[in-house]
Write a structure and sequence with these properties.
The complex is a heterodimer of chains A (306) and B (311).
Chain A (H helix, E strand, L loop, with lengths): L1 H24 L5 H4 L9 H14 L1 H4 L21 H4 L3 H10 L13 H12 L6 H7 L7 E10 L4 E9 L5 E3 L5 E7 L2 E4 L12 E5 L12 E7 L2 H4 L3 E6 L25 H35 L1
Antiparallel strand pairs in A: 1-2, 2-3, 2-6, 4-5, 4-7, 7-8
Helix pairs in contact in A: 3-7
Chain B lengths: L1 H40 L4 E5 L5 E5 L11 H10 L6 E6 L8 H9 L10 E5 L8 E5 L8 H5 L5 E3 L5 E3 L9 H5 L5 E3 L28 E3 L4 H4 L6 H5 L5 E5 L4 E4 L5 E3 H7 L15 E4 L15 H4 L1
Parallel strand pairs in B: 3-13
Antiparallel strand pairs in B: 1-2, 3-10, 4-5, 6-7, 8-9, 10-11, 11-12
The chains are: A alpha+beta (306), B alpha+beta (311).
The structure holds iron/sulfur cluster (SF4) (2 copies).
């Protein structure tokens, strides 16, 4: 009896596992989809924006590429997307799988734009040992530097910010660092609002200038908390600068309780309600008192008539 | 002479009173010590607890005490006042909802609700015979012109300066006028003892979470006002796996997505996606905005109970 039970259990387990294996491998991609090529070049810009999207959309399950720190899901754990045996696939194959999803992998066909998906693929390709050479040609080479500094210049009149990224070369000269992406973030209640704009990359002299949105509310004085940082920690570590700037539109928060309204408490009831109510109560009581006084007068009247 | 006797008797009375009280004290302290000893002797039953920094520790069950909270007065006062300078709004993107119902679970956990009680409910919608069906999560709309607070006879439900509409179940008399007044059916009534009533009975009432719930009072969505105080997103918003919810401060013109953590401009989001509010013709001025179920990320499966379809 026991044995049969064990056998059944084992059979069941085998069945479940084989099913999941079939699931993991049975990812059929049509030949036409496989042929697609990433229309975006593997420039450092595209790769870094792909990394941003990856960190928001993919990282929570797949972990960091090549680090194999994915979420340990059962029965099929998410793939390490930086692994070489994953990157064997064509761009189109990956694109198709991201679109359609399977099992625990969601379909991103409509939740992420095509452009963003290609950026992610460009980012993943940067881990591909076979194609990496090509990408490095496109990248700007900065000299090796130490003591990297981030300086901020705020122009309150035309609401612009200038960040300067520089480092000291081996020869002891301070030079600007080129082609590095910066993030300009405004602190809000539950997160940071990115105001970096389209092209937040440092130029030859290590400068990047951004236009702060003209209509973004600040506090009463128009102050906002800014966080400026090098987007990708991989270059120079976590380099950031926090600053309170007066670039927002001064905003006085309205307290809805200041207004007299029906929905408010007794303390701020509308005047007309208070007047009508108090008037009504007074009117009724005065009628009652009037009647009472008249009744008191009755016996007196009767006497005087006698 | 008379005086003396009365004095005497009073003294006598006080004496005997003192002795008996003292005795009672001794007896009770004895029994306390006894109880403590008994508790100490019992084979220690250990429970696993997660500390704040994420470590799993074992603690003797006899040493567990309910956490000491702020006193009730303080909680009530700050709960009534709200958080100055804020104006909370929620945006629900219908094109991303696939009825995962994680928001509902998180909410029911947070607010001591049974599975059939909803502060937030995901509804299957079909506007007309030939229109496409879609899923719509529906919390309290935290109206800026709330019909519910107008009808409460005891000032139990009220609006605060940050826009949130709350209920004080210490005041609520269970008349249910507010349930009748709310056009969005956002309110529920506790007909029976709430779930886990035993477990929560020693907890100080927190008006911002409406916990512990009380039989015979009304409850509804609170935008997790207690979490907002700690700069955390509401339970439902952070529990959604599909990026449906945005939540933020209208005064800052920014809302944050609970799934991706991405922060966007509130006005832009509404403008670019044709955001709308529910039944605006009623003039209730909701604080919950919806983005239309256009270009949907998931197919409508219409089958609530089929788990397969939910993942
Ligand atoms: S949705 Fe209903 S309960 Fe919520 S504020 Fe509006 S009227 Fe009141
Ligand atoms: S049920 Fe409670 S909150 Fe609602 S109107 Fe009556 S007393 Fe006010």
């Amino acid at each position: 009896m026991k044995n049969t039970m064990k056998n059944i259990a084992a059979l069941f387990l085998i069945f479940v596992f084989s099913g999941s294996v079939v699931n993991a491998q049975g990812w059929t991609v049509p030949a036409s989809a496989k042929k697609k090529q990433n229309p975006y070049e593997a420039t450092s810009k595209n790769i870094s924006s792909g990394k941003k999207i990856y960190n928001i959309q993919c990282k929570s399950c797949h972990g960091d590429p090549t680090m194999a720190n994915m979420l340990p899901l059962a029965p099929v754990a998410p793939t390490d997307l930086g692994a070489q045996n994953f990157l064997i696939q064509s761009d189109g194959e990956i694109f198709y799988k991201v679109n359609k999803g399977q099992g625990a992998m969601p379909a991103f066909e409509k939740t992420i734009s095509d452009e963003d998906k290609w950026m992610v693929i460009a980012f993943l390709r940067s881990f591909d040992k076979n194609k990496k050479v090509k990408q490095q040609v496109a990248e700007v080479k900065n000299p090796e530097v130490t003591d990297v500094k981030l300086e901020l210049n705020v122009n309150e009149a035309d609401k612009t910010m200038l960040a300067k990224l520089s480092g000291v070369t081996k020869k002891g000269k301070r030079v600007g660092l080129q082609g590095i992406e910066m993030s300009f973030l405004v602190k809000r209640s539950f997160g940071y609002l990115d105001v970096s704009g389209e092209d937040p990359y440092t130029n030859e002299s290590g400068d990047v200038q951004i236009q702060f949105p003209k209509d973004l509310p600040g506090d009463r004085e128009g102050q906002v908390n800014m966080l400026v940082k090098v987007t990708d920690d991989a270059f120079y570590g976590n380099l950031e600068e926090k600053r309170v700037v007066t670039l927002g539109v001064p905003t006085d928060p309205v307290n809805p309780l200041d207004e007299r309204a029906m929905w408010g408490t007794r303390a701020n009831a509308p005047i007309w309600i208070i007047v009508t109510f108090v008037g009504g109560v007074l009117a009724i009581w005065s009628v009652i008192f009037l009647v009472l006084f008249q009744m008191i007068k009755l016996p007196k009247l009767a006497k005087s008539k006698d | 002479m008379k005086e003396e006797t009365s004095n005497n008797s009073r003294r006598k009375f006080l004496k005997s009173f003192g002795i008996s009280v003292g005795a009672a004290g001794v007896v009770s302290s004895f029994s306390l010590i006894g109880a403590a000893k008994a508790a100490a002797k019992k084979p220690a039953e250990m429970v696993n607890l997660l500390t704040q920094d994420g470590q799993l520790v074992q603690v003797d069950k006899n040493q567990l005490r309910p956490t000491v909270n702020e006193p009730l007065d303080e909680l009530q006062k700050r709960g009534r006042e709200g958080i100055p300078g804020k104006s909370f709004v929620m945006v629900i993107d219908l094109s991303k909802c696939r009825n995962a119902r994680k928001c509902m679970d998180a909410c029911q956990n947070h607010h001591q609700l049974r599975a059939d009680q909803h502060h937030i409910n995901v509804l299957q919608m079909q506007d007309a015979e030939h229109t496409a069906p879609y899923f719509m999560p529906k919390p309290c709309q935290h109206c800026d012109n709330p019909p519910c607070t107008k009808v409460c006879p005891v000032d139990a439900t009220f609006k605060r300066q940050d826009g949130i509409v709350l209920i004080d179940n210490e005041r609520c008399i269970g008349c249910r006028f507010c349930i009748a007044a709310c056009p969005y059916s956002a309110r529920i009534f506790q007909w029976t003892e709430p779930k886990d009533a035993e477990k929560y009975k020693d907890l100080t009432y927190n008006i911002e979470a409406n916990v512990p719930q009380k039989k015979g009072t009304v409850s509804k969505c609170l935008f997790s006002a207690d979490r907002l105080r700690e700069d955390k997103l509401p339970s439902c918003v952070s529990a959604c796996p599909n990026g449906v919810y945005y939540f933020g401060d209208q005064n800052e013109d920014a809302v944050t997505n609970g799934t991706t953590g991405e922060t966007v401009r509130f006005s832009k989001l509404i403008e670019e996606n044709a955001g709308y509010t529910l039944m605006e013709e009623l003039g209730t001025k909701p604080r919950v905005y919806y983005l239309p179920p256009k270009n949907r990320a998931f197919e409508f499966n219409g089958d609530l109970l089929n788990e397969e379809n939910l993942h």
